[in-house]
Amino acid sequence: MSSAEDDEFAAFVAARGTSLLRVAYLTSGNEGEAEDLLQTALERAYRNWDRVRYDNPEPYVRRIIVNTSIDRARRRAILRIIPMHTPPEPSPHETDVDLRHVLMDTLRALPPRQRAVIVLRYWEDLSEAQTAEILGCSAGTVKSQASKALAKLRTALGGRSSEGMIRNVHA
Amino acid sequence: MPEDDIRQIMADETARLYAPPDLVNRVIRSTRRRKTNRIRLATLATAVAVAGVAAPAYLILSPGSASLQGSGVGAPGDVSATSQPDTTDQAAQEPPAIVVPADDDPAPEERDLGDLGDGKAFGHVRVGYLPDGLQWSHWSLDFGDKYTTSWNYDGDKNGFYCVQIYVHEGPEAVQEVDERQRAYREEGKGKEVTIGDRTGYLVTQWVGEDGMKGTPTLILNMGEKRRAEIMFSPVYAKKFTGAKAIDAELKKIAEGLTADN
Description:
The structure holds two protein chains of two kinds. Chain A is an all-alpha fold. Chain A folds into two domains: 1-83, Rna Polymerase Sigma Factor, Chain: A; 91-171, Winged helix-like DNA-binding domain superfamily/Winged helix DNA-binding domain (Arc Repressor Mutant, subunit A, Orthogonal Bundle). Chain A contains nine helices and no strands. Chain A is elongated. Chain B is α+β, with helices and mostly antiparallel strands. Helix content of chain B is 31%, strand content 22%. Chain B has helices at residues 3-14, 23-50, 88-93, 171-186, 234-237, 243-256; strands at 121-122, 125-127, 135-142, 146-152, 163-169, 191-195, 198-205, 215-221, 226-232, 257-259. In chain B, a hairpin with a 3-residue loop joins strand 3 and strand 4. At the A-B interface, helix 1, helix 2, helix 4, helix 5 and helix 6 of A face helix 1, helix 2, helix 3 and helix 4 of B.
């Protein structure tokens, strides 16, 4: 790769690295894993930079992050390295920040593809069609997976008002 | 719960995260190191081949192989189709069904199934049907309770596979496949099929990259102690007109796949 292309790649990482790291974190639920996912995806992009640079490289990298994260999570579940867990029952005295943690735990406990759908739809603000394209499934599947995931997140919160939670967290 | 709340929570959760400042350098260093190692490995393989000693120049690992457990199948950085010197682009296009372990991963014990002739009989199974134009790749691996071979256009063992069949035998190997299938089912991925009086599961496995959807696979139940995974490489799958045509061809191969015990 030429020096100019290296500079171009570096500029891309500088501009989008943090955003992509956050996607990796939300899809994997783990900071260390997120950094590894991001580096892995960027290595792939760097190797193919002569092709990728002419399109928008961000969707390319994002797709690798999301699909790799799904695959790793699935494999871990199969290998029972980390057991799937359900969010703990909230205690009567817990704070709103605890509730946020409950919600994040629930997000982490979602099946990997449902979690990816939530991240892509509500964090990346992608359309159902764009999300489907990344995940290699139909828009209908995205819709149904999002619906199931949202139902689980609602259940985790029980009857509590998430609006109040958000307001208090930001207070 | 409004979706906006989810957005806000995710924003709060990630606000403290920033890409490390040395990320670009790490990516470039790691990429160059891998490339160097691939070239080194290919040089070694060539030297061994010249000496007339059979040495696998690449590895195809089972989904449950030890070297995959750390990074998981589909980790793009671990994917390489062959150990030929200039395989960087090919590696990017090929699926994680073919995996070279990361630099510091221990190599699993490597054995092959020997000279399989036309490649249609291997281990305890026999392939009755293959799509036109394919021939045995002269490549195989034998892990004892798992073994595999593949077919491609030119019979070159360093070439890309078109069709690969993985056979899992014994309780542990079968259990691994069954659990993987169960996970797909729970996620609503894939579908049950019947192959004559046998059952199967059609699914696209692993990571779809570079615009491809992953590895079309038919998991065939060949009795209590045996499962077979019939896989098309994503590159080969593109030659078919669509998912239905791929499924039909996978089913035909499954129909012709028989066991000798």
